[in-house]
Structure formats: C-alpha cells, structure tokens
Specification:
16 helices
C-alpha cells in the first residue's frame, strides 16, 4: 500500500500546483496597473455592455466630469435598449449605413468599415446602440479624441440621433442581419480589417486570392502594404498578426481583452469590438482552428492516455505485489 500512498501524495500536490498555485503565481507576476498604480479588475460581464467597466475606469482616474459623462451616456444606451424597435422602419435608416459598410474594402479615416451582414448575430445589442449614439464612447477610445466627432464614424451620431431611430435600426439588424455564420466569417467581419492571419493567408484586405501571374500577386501585396500603412498611422502601431495568439495567451486574457481592451492595456488604441458571447465563441473557434489545429485531437486522446496510465498503475502494482510476496 506504500506505493499507492506515494502516488496519492504526488497526485494531490500535482493537482494543487496546477489548479491553485500556478494560477495564483501567474496572477501575482502579471498584475496590470492603471497609470495611478491601481490594480485593474478584468471582467467580461458575459459579453454584455452597460458601461460598468468604462465608468469604473473613469472613477479610477478621479475625473468626475468624465464619470458623469460616461454614466449619462450608458444610462441613455440602456434606456434605448428597453424601447421597442420597428424593424421595417429600421430598414430605411439602415440604408444610410450601406455607403460605408458595403464590403468594398475601402479605407475610411484609417480603417476599412466592417461588413454588417451578420451584425445582429455577433454583436451585443447594447453595443450596437452605443456605437450608433457615439462610436468613440461605445468602443471606449474616446480618450484619443478631443471631440469624439473626429472618430472615423463620428458623423453617424448626428445623422441617426433620434433614440427611436436607433432602436429601429438595431431591431432591423437583429432581424435581418443575423443568421448562421461560420467562425471564419465571424473573424472576417469583426477582426480582419486590422488583424492579419498569415497562417490562413488572410490580410487586412481579406483572403489572399490565387494569382496566375506574379505581377498580379506583387500588385496585391503592394495594396496590402499600403493598407497596413494606413492602419498603422491610425492605430499608432500595426495590430499584430493573430495566427498564434490562441497559444500565446490564455483564455482569460483573450476574453477580457476582447470585451474591453482598456482593462488589459490602459490607453491602447484598440477599440472594444462589442462581440456578444456567440460572436466571441466563434472568433475563438477560428483562432483555435488556425493557431492550434491539433487541439481537438489532443483533447480527444487525453482521456485514453489517462486511462492507460491508470490501468498500467494497477497492473504494475499487482505485478510488484505478486513478485515480492515471498520477500515478506
């Protein structure tokens, strides 16, 4: 029985290290502090947005005017979310969006306007409302602008400023711009205009076509480089390629950073994307598919390996007991 006791002790301390000690050590060694030295608290709030994080950040800065501004803004967003929207009326309002959000890959003010074909499925309702009311406030990058109207999409808050119109257009997106969407398409709609994915031949202009002639491939590469320069000028730095991000960062970092980039990297130019839980899950699935394609097989074989070692341990114990029984 001594061997079993040794095994139990080793297993106990291994699990204790894996589930408690290592996560605690990681937290202590990777504390994130705001400019005032306060530890930031990372939450996802289930990928719903009501201004909780934004207001808390303003409070940590000690800026009472900013706190009041954030509270008023998000209070109005929540009020609009409770209004009944008319999808039919919203279709006419949505027509104002097609000029930019048309999938034509035209850079406007630093970045390509995203495709909204599945906006109602992958983005949170509150975020969509907030985005129409004030894009810079909604994406939590208002610190970049003396006047949030200078945001590339800033003019929308003047063209669609009526709360009922906002409720209507969001109702339209949820009714007609939803539907089933693949993980790859979700990534393309939510992320690709800033982040490349070289392991899947994805650039800021989308998937790289197959070219018959080298000069056409070079011409496309020049267009990609030009687009990257525009994004870099707007963001301050070129956003990283995400091919291996799923293996470089843990799930907690991924969730909290996408839900609110400012919480992980105060002052960053990366905007809040506004994905809901479904949208995030699909983006994560695509990142896993490209960055860690063997994960599914690896996890499937795991229980079999554990089972093998469990049976092997029993057989080894019985074999040892059988061969040593005459030595007692």
């Amino acid at each position: 029985m001594r061997e079993l006791k040794i095994f139990a002790v080793v297993a106990f301390f291994s699990l204790l290290t894996y589930w408690l000690v290592e996560p605690f050590a990681h937290h202590e060694l990777h504390k994130k502090l705001d400019p005032q030295g306060n530890e930031l608290i990372f939450k996802t709030h289930g990928f719903t947005y009501d201004g909780t994080d934004d207001i808390a950040e303003a409070e940590r800065k000690g800026d009472e005017a900013l706190v009041a501004k954030k509270k008023a803004f998000w209070s109005d967003v929540v009020a609009v979310s409770k209004m009944e929207g008319n999808a039919a009326a919203g279709e006419a309002v949505f027509a104002n969006c097609i000029g930019c959000h048309n999938g034509a890959n035209i850079n406007m003010g630093g970045v390509i306007a995203p495709n909204l074909d599945h906006a109602g499925a992958i983005y949170d309702k509150n975020y969509l409302i907030a985005l129409i009311k004030d894009p810079a406030m909604a994406s939590n990058v208002d610190h970049k602008y003396a006047d949030t109207s200078m945001h590339p999409m800033g003019s929308i808050k003047y063209t669609v400023s009526d709360n009922q119109q906002i409720a209507d257009v969001v109702a339209y997106m949820q009714a007609h711009k939803a539907g089933e969407i693949s993980p790859k398409e979700t990534f393309k709609e939510a992320c690709v205009r800033c982040h490349a994915m070289r392991y899947d031949k994805m650039t800021q202009l989308g998937e790289t076509p197959k070219f018959k002639h080298e000069k056409d491939a070079l011409s496309h590469k020049i267009k990609v480089l030009e687009e990257q320069e525009k994004v870099k000028a707007y963001m301050g730095n070129l956003p990283p390629d995400l091919s291996m991000i799923i293996r470089a960062r843990g799930n907690h970092f991924m969730e909290t950073f996408i839900a609110n980039p400012q919480g992980q990297l105060a002052g960053t130019s990366m905007p809040r994307v506004g994905l809901n839980q479904e949208g995030y899950d699909k983006v994560e699935a695509y990142l896993t598919q490209i960055g860690d394609p063997s994960k599914v097989k690896r996890e499937a074989i795991g229980p079999w390996v554990i089972g093998f070692f469990f049976i092997f341990t029993i057989l080894a114990f019985l074999w040892k007991k059988s061969h040593w029984r005459d030595l007692h």
